[in-house]
Hints:
The structure is a single chain. The chain is an all-alpha fold. The chain has helices at about 10-15, 15-20, 30-45, 50-60, 65-70, 75-95, 100-105, 105-125, 130-160, 160-190, 195-205, 210-215, 225-230, 235-245, 250-270, 285-300, 305-315, 325-345, 355-380, 385-400, 405-415, 420-450, 455-470, 485-490, 495-505, 515. The radius of gyration is 23 Å and the shape is globular.
Amino acid sequence: MDNKKIDAATITDQSEVIRLLQLDSKPWYQKPNLRALYFCLIPAALGVEMTTGYDGSVLNGLQAVSHWQDYFGHPTGSRLGVLNASYNLGGLITLPLVPWVNDKFGRKHSITLGSLILCCGVVVQAASQNYGMFLASRFLLGTGIPFAVSGAAQLLAELTYPKERAVVTGLFNVSWFVGAILAAGVTLGTYSIPNDWSWRIPSMLQAAPSLLQLTFIWWVPESPRWLISKDRDAEAFEILVKYHGEGDRDSPFVNAEFVEIQNQLRLESLNSKRKWIELLQTPGNRKRVLIVMCLGIFAQWSGNGLISYYLAKVLQTVGIKDKRTQNIINLSLSCWSLITAAGAAFATIVLRRRVQYLTSFVSITVIFSIITALSATFAKTGGNAVATGVIAFIFIFNGFFNIMQPLMYIYATEIFPFIYRAKGLAILQFFNRGSTAFNTFVNPIGLDSLKWKYYLFYAVWLVCETMIVYFLYPETKGPSLEEVAMVFDGERNPEKMANDDRDDIKDIGMNLTVQELK
């Protein structure tokens, strides 16, 4: 067996599936079945991250609402940090169960379970009578979100047409900003209500994304890859025919895709017992785990955590203390982030993964250093011009950070083969939520104690992150989900890979019938 690593470009050039895919020049919006699928996927799966975005932004907004502050005793420091961290701490508790639910019951049922738990958490949060009840509600919300996020990310990657897979999966993470905008807009709109409804209404509306998922998930098919893993090949083939072939059972691409998925999943099943320890037993798997750990940590420890959860405190360090002004800036920043992140998701069509990552990391390293310098200048001299400069560079920082924002789930679903994908996303969420929980607990303490000097840690850490990305992250754009494994494992040489796939397609794929599958 040849263990020589193969780069993504070589795999793409030798791939029969990709060759057949490239022959299809018809856009998705001219395909009725695919168009209907995407219409249902938007509320059922694409918008799952709206819940997390809503949560992050609504706490920013509520900190500027006087009735919320009065009701819960003006939480600061560790009390505010625990309140923010509880959402992610709840997720850490349930994460070990998430891969099992995903692989046992399917991607759709994982989304359904998570959405039901989230709705229960919203009821408790909106009815909170004291700080402890509000804290418990956020913990309950956190226990549900990993099920929904993991199931949705895998469903999108495994069900969508390969040409749109990266864009759709990227927009999944971008939906975070849709939730953030809704929360910022709602808290701004209810800000002037002279009673507790000024914070209870925003809390109640956090259930909106979950209710959409519970409504539309029944019109979305299950992942064909999951169905094949459960020996339900005929159902999987029908789904691929309907949505990837627009009803054409003789489609060369659909048959080639089906054969590749079928062969790869059965090969994985023969070589794996689905144990966690397997993720540490080969060089390829160890590299995957290291990368996904970095994906989770870097998504929160790049200075963006300060802005996402503590914008009000950051603005106070440069003299912007008016609550309404803080809420307006919060809403404007969320809108700007949605535009730039959505643009970055569509940029995945032409840009390689490494280009997007490195462009983002190099840029935010420089920009965050400028924000630190401006904040230090304001602390010494004051002045509206410096404060305005900090706000401007916060917007610029977010724009460049969002270049990599869509890539987290794209990259994670690409680097893990099906047999380990659910576990890989669980590891991603563990480190993402763990680092967020740590961040949200430590950041308010650091900001209260050190003010702008606290930024220096992130300025140095960003340099380390950039170097790790440059030396660790391989290119994955081009190959199919099944073929990316060779970038890490190199189990077959390119010529043999191409010949084997072509033989399978000629001997099996082009002659497949539903009767034979049954």
